[in-house]
UniProtKB/TrEMBL annotation:
<dbReference type="InterPro" id="IPR020846">
    <property type="entry name" value="MFS_dom"/>
</dbReference>
<feature type="transmembrane region" description="Helical">
    <location>
        <begin position="413"/>
        <end position="436"/>
    </location>
</feature>
<keyword id="KW-0813">Transport</keyword>
<feature type="transmembrane region" description="Helical">
    <location>
        <begin position="18"/>
        <end position="35"/>
    </location>
</feature>
<dbReference type="GO" id="GO:0022857">
    <property type="term" value="F:transmembrane transporter activity"/>
</dbReference>
<feature type="transmembrane region" description="Helical">
    <location>
        <begin position="116"/>
        <end position="138"/>
    </location>
</feature>
<dbReference type="InterPro" id="IPR050820">
    <property type="entry name" value="MFS_Sugar_Transporter"/>
</dbReference>
<feature type="transmembrane region" description="Helical">
    <location>
        <begin position="337"/>
        <end position="356"/>
    </location>
</feature>
<feature type="transmembrane region" description="Helical">
    <location>
        <begin position="442"/>
        <end position="458"/>
    </location>
</feature>
<dbReference type="InterPro" id="IPR036259">
    <property type="entry name" value="MFS_trans_sf"/>
</dbReference>
<keyword id="KW-1133">Transmembrane helix</keyword>
<feature type="transmembrane region" description="Helical">
    <location>
        <begin position="88"/>
        <end position="110"/>
    </location>
</feature>
<comment type="similarity">
    <text>Belongs to the major facilitator superfamily. Sugar transporter (TC 2.A.1.1) family.</text>
</comment>
<feature type="transmembrane region" description="Helical">
    <location>
        <begin position="270"/>
        <end position="292"/>
    </location>
</feature>
<feature type="transmembrane region" description="Helical">
    <location>
        <begin position="150"/>
        <end position="170"/>
    </location>
</feature>
<keyword id="KW-0472">Membrane</keyword>
<feature type="domain" description="Major facilitator superfamily (MFS) profile">
    <location>
        <begin position="22"/>
        <end position="466"/>
    </location>
</feature>
Amino acid sequence: MVESQVVLTPRARKAERYATTLALIVTLGPLFYGFEGMVLNGAISAVGSEFQLGSFAKGVAGAAGIIGGLIGSLIAGRLSDYIGRRGVLLLVGPFLMFEAIFGALCPYLGGYPFLLFCRIVGGMGFGAATTVAPGYVAEISPARIRGRLISFRQLAIILGLLFAAVVNLVMTNLAGDSSAEVFLGIKAWQCMFLCLIVPALVYMILMPFIPESPRYLVSKGRNEQASKVLERLSGTDDVTAQVESIQRSLGGVNEALGIFAVLRSKWRGLVCVGMALAAFQQLTGTNGIFFYSNTLFEAVGVPESAAFQQTLILTVFKIIGVTAGILLVDRVGRKRMLMYGGTLIFISLAVVATVFTVAPSGPNGPDISHSPVLGFLAVAALCCFLLGFTSSWGPIFSVMMGEMFPNQIRGSAMSLASGADFFVNFLVVLLFPYVVEWSPAVAYWAFFVFGVLAVIFAKKYLHETNGKSLEEMGD
């Protein structure tokens, strides 16, 4: 049914507004994820000087959060089957706050090793949040708007990146340098970490107000509580049929399957599709494409010193892309969005790869600084890549992860899919600098190949979930 033809009662509209509010609160965890990543990006040079780190040690500091995210993601989904989706999300706040406070104080509490520990702890928090949040939002959302509400996760990450870029700019301007003192012996990079307290505190204040997922409540036999939540989320008084449908989808079992049981179950193929989807999201180059962004902007007259201006330009395209994805995902469908967006992604990667292939060699690799045409082509391709990724593979991976798995396995399956996402992300971040140093053209042609394979994979193996209830998944 076309969305514009749906006529909602005032109570149903109120219910949708309530579900939207819950989705916005839950996405504060992913906002912290984006905020934390950009904060470290601004502080990493100063951190390297503070602890006299080489390039490898700085890389480990950058990857420590991803390692924590992997650990958190593998634990969180299954843990949410025991203590509830809300229960896990409530636990996230202290992990985020720990990194915010003690990451700033690490020079006095153990130095570099303690900094790594703080980043791993914070990573466990946002890894758990980004794993459980899509499933929670899927379980409290009306099917009509479920895709757009889960897509808020991607928008939250982007806004977190933007807010952190503003913080980094302010701190650097106040101190003159991220290694300089701001007040009372506290340096600018430490203040950047302390600013993480704000999103962590807001998260901890608001999270207790969300209800438990009705699907989890039914799985534990707490049908009366589930009915009350469903009544508010659906805008109707009679939710008996919905509760019974959830019970049937659980197959009469009140204990969700564990990770190893899932991999031995009839749904193992579906879970492998989810894990492959996660891998392709990272292998399409979402992190690697930014490695040469400074070089590309310098080629068209935007110097590296204007980092904030570059961030603003990139953020504008990200917001346009993710807004388009939010508006279209429930109209066009998940599968078609992945295919259309994926096509724009691999075409953009092909342009960037071609630029580096034909560019003349310089002392530090391909040199496009003397060719305005190549420079503008590369920057245009970068912006098109952002539009393609943030409207499709960025948000829709979260949508699919939250809704493609049946109720019996959702917790464990989300852990496996999110774990695959963090693991491949770690490999890309670790290996890409070495590959691109050897040959930027080869690196981007490799991403192009993965982009093509991602579209083929989506066409062949993904089943459309748009408009279906969660109880229909896995049939």
